[in-house]
Amino acid sequence: LEMNSILKVWGDAAVQVFFSMSVGAGGLTTLSSYNELDNNIFRDTFVITLGNIFTSLLSGFVVFSILGFMAGEFRQSVESIATAGPGLLFVTYPYALTHLPLSPVWSALFFFTVILMGIDSQIVLVEVVITAFKDQYPKLREPKIRVCAVACTCAISYLIGLLMCTGNKNRNQNNKLSINGWCVYFELARHVCRRLAAPSAVSFGSHNCGLEKYANLYRYMLGEPTRKFWKFLGFPINKFYTLCWAYLTPLCLVVVLVFNFSEYTITSYGNYIYPLWAEVIGWLIAFGSCLPAVIVALYKVIVIVTTGSKETIKLRLRNQLTSTERWDQNRKILETSNAEELQTVDTKMKF
Q: Residue 248 and residue 242: Cα distance in Å, rounded?
């Protein structure tokens, strides 16, 4: 029983790493698309990862000290105090802050931090949607059209968010518990999707284009290091990183995936346990992000099989998997326009 508890803690910690880094949510990929070609992503990776570690440790000290104080104050166990949801943020923490010196100041700083966290998260999430449409439809890059697109995205998200705040309410017999129906729906989606979102971030990019090509791409962008510290770390690439991309990272993610499914339980919200049909809806939501790729792939296969061409099915399938003429042209333009600039990268960049 003790070993199962330890494994559960480590499994939840592994999933939390993906959530805190927003891996698989598109935020890091979207923001990094605005980097310069010779941007030192090696350095950025270290800064972001170490910053996330120290922030998590600091937050852990704050959270557990408050929960321990609350458990002693009410003579209850920490498990009964540490209930997930808005109550922990808007009830437990504010109550603990009232016992600190200058409690109004600490309360104001706390809620100001919560507001900043919400705004920062919304900026990144909206940018993910806008960038996806902007890459597909270049006209959205015009300043006026972009402002309208951002406004429409925020308005639609706001209207959808209202559904999470209002609507039907189910009360228990004692009339003490009020559960919003849409919050229950959101909890269902979160509970099911979190088991697929984190482990699904396998290094598809490195395996898709090839490990050697992927490593050469790093060298092409970053050049050679000029400082001993980066040489010591194997900048820009060494065998350890390719080993992680090829074997260690996918293996760790598979372990996390298997552990999540082995610990799977029926979704619940408070004392409410979801019926089977609700679980099915949750899994459909989880796989919804993968459906477009599957549908397009099936459509392409059907077109290849049914097309009355003289080419064999194998040759037609190979043509569908090769890069398009537009991609080849863009790649040649990129290499030509940056050839002279990249020749001077080694002397200009300071790593």
A: 9
